[in-house]
User: Fold Asparagine--tRNA ligase from Candidatus Thermokryptus mobilis.
Amino acid sequence: MLPEVYIENLSQYVGKEVKIYGWVYNKRSSGKIRFVLVRDGTGILQCVMAKGETPDEVFDKYDVLTQETSLIVSGIVNEDKRAPGGYELHIKDIQVIHIAQDYPITPKEHGIDFLMDHRHLWLRSRRPHAVLKIRHRLVKAIRDFFDSRGFVLIDAPILTPASCEGTTTLFETDYFDLGKAYLSQSGQLYVEAAAMAFGKVYCFGPTFRAEKSKTRRHLTEFWMVEPEVAFYELEEIMNLAEEFVEYIVARVLETSKREFEVLERNTEPLEKIIRPFPRISYNDAVEILKKNGINFQWGNDFGNTDETVISQQFEKPVIVHRYPAAVKAFYMKRDPQDETYALSFDMLAPEGYGEIIGGSQREDDYETLLKRIKEHNLPIDAFDWYLDLRKYGSVPHSGFGLGVERTLAWICGLDHVRETIPFPRMIYRIKP
Assistant:
């Protein structure tokens, strides 16, 4: 019985005969030598057939192999630095499982709409394969960071009775006899409750925003990680955000060299992501916009273009803090030095990628929070449990949310977040 191995492990089998299960990625012929590129999900392997060396009945199977035909190949593993992955297989046998007919994604150029319509197949190609391998490692780095620092994972509900950041961007559904329910925009309110029980917590899952936005930074369904820490004020949570981003970028750089080569991503800018990060106030950021000829009105929130201009002034992520309270959520604590500002911050990624983190110190006083809820015309009965947190042992606490897809787009140097998630959901796309 031949050992059944994955391509990524071939270095352990040089000189030995093995069996590989996979699909035909491409093929080419050079006289009496034929090459079949086989992929198995872990890598791409060059398989070689030579007339007179390979059995004739196996050599002739080359003609029936089409792109994405599934097969089992067996042969001797050789080390060859010129081959993809550094190894090749000298074929002894091919067992065809299924011949693919007219695979629609060929080596020629295809438009992005065509590729997105065929996303279920495009995942097999090198570029999306590399992006999603990096996503996997980014997610692992995120979990490792918090797990190794004593944070407890809390799974926040996806169906919620109320909004945490404004009702205009909620997906609504009927919830049996209890009225309306909404798909979660954020798990933040729930991890605030958990932070009062466990001290340091985070949630990590899908979130939903019904924004009619067509920008390259927006998805209607995306993943967000949200830590929350009891007794942290604004300074401490900004420090945590810096440490976190430095860590995850370094981990991905360490584990994804091959994938960055596939994407032709220049990683030199990422190697500069070392603390401390620059920090500027909202007012400082407004001055940057004015100096760069942007007609920006003080008191507005920053749009995509504004964030791009601000972030392009720095080689590292920049933290913008103390936004006007009027443009921030009801739960953010006001600055005791000036009540018109919120103790909030955003982190903008360099290279023009804009916001990847939003966070704040939370309002911890019962009467003040009740007042804010009323000012925002939110239903008090939906937040009675949230107000309870300010009645029974309230403490200062803070947290933030990092969007996985925006962060991955920056790390990979992608033009659009639609490539950062296996099956993107946008206002004009819900299939496949």
In short: The chain has twelve helices and 18 strands.
